[in-house]
Amino acid sequence: MELRRVRCLTSIIFLLCIFATSISIYASTTEEARELDRQCKEARAKKLKPIQESKIKHCVNVQGKSLDYCQRYYATYGWGGKSGYAHRKGLFEDLPVCIAAFEAWKNRER
Questions:
Q1: Residue 52 CB neighbour total at 10 angstroms
Q2: What would you measure as the largest C-alpha separation in the chain, in angstroms?
Q3: Are 92 and 31 a contacting pair, CB within 8 Å?
Q4: Are 77 and 55 within 8 A, CB to CB?
Q5: pLDDT of residue 4
Q6: How high is the pLDDT of residue 109?
Q7: How many separate helices (H) and strands (E) can be counted in the chain?
Q8: Who contacts 81 (Cβ-Cβ below 8 Å, separation ≥6)?
Q9: Per-residue pLDDT of the chain (110 residues; tens, 9 = 90+)
Q10: Going along the chain, which residue ranges are E strands?
Q11: How crowded is residue 57: how many other Cβ atoms within 10 Å of its Cβ?
């Protein structure tokens, strides 16, 4: 009877250790993925800003629209998103840091 209790307690402790380890791995990979996402967003913003500014200048100077309208219209240019049921691919999602972020999220979900 005593041997059964020891085995049972040993099994429970073993399972708790495995569970605690998996949670800490999950947390660290989630934080890493979030940090890579942040770096990706910054890198994309840096590359998109000149393009957006160029589009806004063209909108004001050539199309004759107001600066306020053009700034609102092109504020999200290049970021991608959803249009109905379709996903519009954003520009510069193929930067190395963005690919690393995608891979980090994909590996975390396994």
A1: 19
A2: 89
A3: no
A4: yes
A5: 64
A6: 59
A7: 3, 2
A8: 87, 88, 90
A9: 565 664 554 555 544 444 434 433 443 588 888 999 999 999 999 999 999 999 999 999 999 999 999 999 999 999 988 877 888 889 999 999 999 998 888 887 55
A10: 81-83, 86-88
A11: 13
Q: State the Cα–Cα distance between residues 21 and 26, nearest whole angstrom.
A: 9
Q: Two tokens at 79?
A: 């970021």
What does the block give as tokens for 52?
Answer: 């957006």
Amino acid code (one letter) for 105: W
Residue with tokens 């949670």, as numbered in its chain: 23
Two structure tokens written together for 74: 């092109």
Separation CA 109–CA 98 (nearest Å): 17
Q: φ and ψ at 93, to 5 degrees?
A: -75, -5
Would you state the pLDDT for residue 69? 97
